[in-house]
Amino acid sequence: MRTSRLISLMIALIAAIIWMVSTYANASNSWDPLNFVLRIAAGAVTIAATAEWLVLSVRESRREGIHSGGPRRKRAARRRAPAVPGTALEVAHPEPVVSSPEPAVPDEPAVRRSAGSGTVADKVVSVFGRRRSPAQDLAVVAGGGAVLVVAYLMERKVRRVVVRVGLDAASAASLESALGAAPHRVFGAKPPTRGVFDRSAYTQLEGASGSGAWSIAVPTVDVDLLRYVLARAEEVR
């Protein structure tokens, strides 16, 4: 997570520098289409990368807070009562409170996004040859893990959802929340024709579940993964 934070911060700084340089280059604010597009793009990347850095920072601080103990309470319990001045007797010191060590709770591995649902930081890292592949996602799911897929429910009003895709109970609950209860059947696939997202990178799947018909647009590279999980969703229940 710290690596992702560092990458997001670097992206935000680089984009901010590009924005400032392009703004200074057009100090007269004359109409320059190329400069205008560059400033808008750099500003958008700066905002997105900064927001992602803040989210990752908050998550890490919460994780550290959960796994840190309560040293202040333990120190307070071990303090001795002061002696009463001017008397021959002193208040007996209470025995220090010795608590049994709590068993360590292993951290649940973070669920990463799928190959078709990468963040800005993931796309930058992929430039250096660390691109996540659909085969890796399938291996993770087959091994008992899960990935997050950014999809769009093609309802009367297109709705963006993030679905946990895997063969575990949490993934089954996420799929049921989006598509209804298993079993699922996929009737066909087609290019999406509506919705404010990059439709060229998505495929719209049509199907039905125990709760009724559904239609969802998922990244094209994640279609095989979703079909694999839907065919086995009933086994998880």
UniProtKB/TrEMBL annotation:
Residues 65-116 are annotated as: Disordered. Residues 70-81 have a biased composition (Basic residues). The keyword Transmembrane applies. Residues 82-102 have a biased composition (Low complexity). The chain crosses the membrane at residues 37-56, 138-154. Keywords: Membrane, Transmembrane, Transmembrane helix. This is Uncharacterized protein. It comes from Promicromonospora iranensis.
